[in-house]
UniProtKB/TrEMBL annotation, chain A:
Nucleotide-binding recorded as keyword: yes
PANTHER family assigned: 5-OXOPROLINASE SUBUNIT C, CARBOXYLTRANSFERASE DOMAIN-CONTAINING PROTEIN
Name of the protein this chain belongs to: Biotin-dependent carboxyltransferase
Source organism: Pontibacterium sinense
SUPFAM superfamilies found in the cross-reference section: Cyclophilin-like
From TrEMBL, chain B:
SMART domains in UniProt: AHS1
Name of the coding gene: pxpB
Pfam families: CT_C_D (PF02682)
InterPro entries cross-referenced by the UniProt entry: CT_C_D, Cyclophilin-like_dom_sf, PxpB
Gene3D superfamilies listed in its UniProt record: 3.30.1360.40, Cyclophilin-like
UniProt keyword annotation of Hydrolase present: yes
MF (Gene Ontology): 5-oxoprolinase (ATP-hydrolyzing) activity; ATP binding
Protein keywords: ATP-binding, Hydrolase, Nucleotide-binding
Protein name from the UniProt record: 5-oxoprolinase subunit PxpB
Domain Carboxyltransferase: 1-201
Length: 313, 225
């Protein structure tokens, strides 16, 4: 099969589709892209099915060599895209010829970029998904491994694929000092009004212990009135408060059950924004109702569907 | 039964506050009922000791709709047939060679090694939850005489198949991983195999018994030392 040769894997590059669904009962987590919006745009700008496999590139440094003719697009973090040494526009599909060298620099804003090719990378599914979860050793090219030098990424030869460009005004901005929306839930009654107010009115910093499993934050201590709970299911975005009072926002590679008290959960539109922050960034929390969360989710969905990218085929 | 909001597309149902077989059986019955009655509405479920997390598609249903459906459907819970859970026997090679914490655990409990083995293998356990890692089944409850707290310094590498105790829980490590449980033996049955169907020999609600085997039997069953 045709494909791309990995000349340099970058810091952390993972094959991801939309995620692994329906296997929580045997302990498998969801995996999938941390920034769902940038992932969805990467596929849409090539006319790909929504669940096509792309590369999630964290921080940068990926270098590929094409052994295929296809189209390629890069969305997400501001990571310079060079084809044969010349810088090309991101959020814009480009034609790639056999022998081309594709090089990603390091992100100047944001942390995760998504590189898609026409039709998606052709990767074998494990448990119905290609999503790479390194902690579980599942997905990706084999055994949940991140990309390494010498890997080969198979994809189809495409000479007349669709190609689009997303106009600047529709592109997300990846900025620091953001407010992230949280629905209170789970053990929220085990937090005093004072502790909740502290949580929703303070600045928190992203620590260097922030990865695909969860973002550990640092800031004013928040205390639950209970030490732990009987282990229970953890949903995406759940915010654990361990004994040290420092919140952990659980993301795609979280463990499926756990016993720390949780104050609530961040909405997925905002976990995507948080996952674009590097350690040291500042954020705050804002409380919203679940009805507002549903509305925001549906509005974002409609907006995505109705935003027409420019045809550049 | 109490339903709480967990996240933007997740509700959590609490069936009780404690670890007990009765509550666990309720969770299990709820999973079975919801699988047939609400399969088209739910994306995934996470059963645990006394709770069930349900995840739904918020583009097609909202929390009120799901909550109403859950409340309505789960009225059948009390009258649903009691699932007994399949009884599964897992062989275990208990020894100081395969269980580096066996001796310490026996000393702390003021028991002989043989007594610890006897107590561990004569109890029938229930699979309360699966999580932590793919295929990691939390089994309860361990006889209080051999319950032991987690190690103060977790091991970097616990061997695959290790039979272990933490407080009143016991488990078999499905793969090599870091871990702080007390290791008392090795089980040759693979607890998680992605290429097999089913991928796990046990599911939540099953009953488990450990059967002591010799070193030779352990090796013959494919166990590694």
């Amino acid at each position: 099969m045709n494909g791309f040769k990995v000349l340099q894997p970058g810091l952390l590059t993972l094959l991801q589709d939309a995620g692994r669904i329906g296997h929580h009962r045997i302990g498998l987590t969801s995996g999938g892209p941390l920034d769902m919006l940038a992932f969805k745009w990467a596929n849409r700008l090539l006319g790909n099915p929504v669940n096509s496999t792309v590369l999630e590139v964290s921080i940068g440094g990926l270098v590929l060599e094409a052994e295929v003719n296809t189209l390629l697009v890069l969305t997400g973090a501001e990571m310079p895209l060079k084809i044969n040494g010349i810088e090309f526009e991101r959020w814009h599909a480009h034609r790639i010829k056999q022998g081309d060298r594709i090089e990603l620099g390091y992100a100047s804003q944001g942390a995760r970029a998504y590189l898609a090719v026409s039709g998606g990378f052709q990767i074998e599914h494990s448990f119905g998904s290609t999503a790479t979860v390194t902690r579980e050793g599942i997905g990706g090219l084999s055994d949940g491994n991140k990309l390494k030098q010498g890997d080969y990424l198979p994809c189809n030869e495409v000479t007349s694929g669709q190609a689009f460009r997303l106009p600047e005004l529709h592109r997300p901005e990846y900025t620091d000092n953001i407010s992230l929306r949280v629905i209170t839930g789970y053990q929220q009654h085990s937090f005093s009004d004072f502790d909740k107010r502290m949580f929703f009115s303070s600045d928190y910093q992203v620590t260097d212990r922030a990865d695909r499993m969860g973002y550990r934050l640092s800031g004013p201590e928040v205390k639950a009135s209970i030490d732990g709970i009987l282990s229970e299911g953890i949903c995406h975005g759940a915010i654990q408060i361990p004994a040290d009072g420092q919140p952990i926002v659980l993301l795609n590679d979280r463990q499926t059950i756990g016993g720390y008290p949780k104050i609530g959960s961040m909405i997925s539109l905002d976990t995507a924004r948080m996952a674009q922050l590097l350690s040291g960034s500042t954020l705050t929390f804002e409380e919203i109702t679940i009805d507002d969360a549903h509305n925001l989710h549906c509005l974002a969905h409609v907006k995505f569907e109705r935003t027409e990218p420019e045809d550049v085929s | 039964m109490r339903i709480e909001i967990a996240g933007e597309n997740a509700l959590i149902i609490y069936f009780g506050e404690d670890t007990d077989p009765h509550t666990s059986a309720k969770v299990q019955r709820a999973v079975t009922i919801l699988e047939t009655e609400m399969a088209d509405k739910l994306i995934d479920m996470v059963p645990s000791y006394a709770s069930l997390l349900v995840i739904y598609d918020q583009l097609t249903c909202d929390h009120l709709e799901i909550q109403a459906m859950l409340q309505n459907i789960l009225t059948q819970l009390e009258s649903a047939p009691q699932a007994k859970g399949t009884l599964i026997t897992l062989p275990a090679y208990y020894s100081t060679e395969s269980g580096p914490d066996l001796e310490n655990l026996a000393q702390r409990a003021n028991l002989s090694i043989d007594e610890v083995i006897q107590i561990h293998s004569q109890t029938e356990y229930r699979v309360y939850a699966i999580g932590f890692a793919p295929g990691f089944a939390y089994l309860g409850e361990v006889d209080p005489r051999i319950a032991a707290p987690r190690l103060s310094t977790p091991r970097q590498k616990v061997p695959k198949g290790s039979v272990a105790i933490a407080d009143q829980q016991t488990a078999v490590y499905p793969a090599v991983s870091p871990g702080g449980w007390n290791l008392i033996g090795l089980c040759p049955t693979p607890m998680f195999d992605p290429n097999k169907k089913p991928t796990m020999p046990v599911q939540v609600g099953d009953r488990i018994r450990f059967e002591p085997i010799s070193r030779t039997q352990y090796l013959a069953l494919g166990g590694e030392l």
